[in-house]
Amino acid sequence: MTAPDTTLISLESTHYPSLLTRHPGNPILTRKDWPYSMNSVFNAGATLLPDGTTLLLCRVEDRRGLSHLCAARSRNGVDGWQIDREPTLMPNPREYPEEIWGIEDPRITFVPELQQYVVTYTSYSRGGPGVSLALTKDFRSFERYGVIMPPDDKDTALLPRRINGYWALIHRPMTALGAHMWISYSPDLRYWGRHRLMLEARKGAWWDANKIGLSPPPIETARGWLVFYHGVRHTPSGCLYRLGLALFDLEHPEKCLLRGDSWIFGPEADYERHGDVDDVVFPCGYTMDPDGDTLNLYYGAADCAIALARASVRSLLDWLDANGSCERRQRAEDLKSAVSDALV
Q1: What is the predicted pLDDT for the residue at 224?
Q2: CATH of the domain at 31
Q3: Domain of 220?
């Protein structure tokens, strides 16, 4: 009797590159830092102010379960946070009834043409979550545009410049057929059309099957719009939120050039694994260092804290080149597989 062959798996073969490095001081903001009573802080939009200060527009949940937005400022983007003594942007259901159950998950885009920051956020109405938009120059006063995408829709950000004369908005409508990323166009930031499917959630056992959404606003590079997106995997113990990468054409951003097959960042640290919602990493904002390559990614951790991870844009693009696939080719492979299964 001969012994069966034994295949040894090298540890090197199962090692995945670490594209994002967690800051050793994580989490950088928690409820203990807040100057007023609240339940939790997470999912912050981010931007750099003209003087180099990092501003985070944080989602703050009160003990009713309703959310508002509050600004925190830091000279180095890590510590020494100066937090507004009261909420920066509160829901205003009297004038904007779509905000009756709170406002959540802001993304910030500085728009040079307007010389203003555009904040898109989820407005939680009786009919479900929709997309609202506001303009600000200083994060003290805001010009609300109200709801621009009806429920059920969220995970949205504006591109920083017009595309062929039109503003472009990425968002994630929910339907009975799944939750996919779309892009829509507008001449004035108020009325939106030319809706295009941008990125589909995959099917089956994939890490990003059935439900995906935009994470922070897209990053404009010479090669295209670099996008972090989250995939939600349903498991017996609950949902698992992880991050993936994709690259889109600069002038036709609905065209996917590359999409990573595997996730690149997921909940591992204790503050990401355990909280109000376990196993969640959820970035809504980033800043770029003066070198134009170092990315500071701010993310919500387990719906209880804000954490920071750093990455190199060059390394992210290199990883996509090595591990990404063309969307059309992926669809062709899926179709071929489906046909083969049907013939069996």
Answers
A1: 98
A2: 2.115.10.20
A3: 23-343
Nearest Cα residue to 105 out of 217, 221, 267: 217
The candidate with the shortest Cα–Cα distance to 157, out of 197, 108, 124, 224, is: 108
CB atoms near residue 121 (< 10 Å) = 29
Q: Are 103 and 121 within 8 A, CB to CB?
A: yes
Residue 206 resides in a domain: yes
Question: Which strands sit side by side in the sheet containing 128-136, from one edge to the other?
Answer: 103-111, 116-125, 128-136, 143-149
Residues in a beta bridge with 175: 178
pLDDT for 8 equals 39
Report whether 258 contacts 321 (CB < 8 A): yes
The one-letter amino acid at 238? G
Q: What is the pTM of this model?
A: 0.91
Nearest to 171 by CA among 233, 213, 117: 213
Backbone angles phi, psi at 49, to 5 degrees: -85, 165
Question: 7 in a domain, yes or no?
Answer: no
Give the number of domains in the chain: 1
pLDDT band, very low/low/confident/very high, at 336 (cuts 50, 70, 90): low
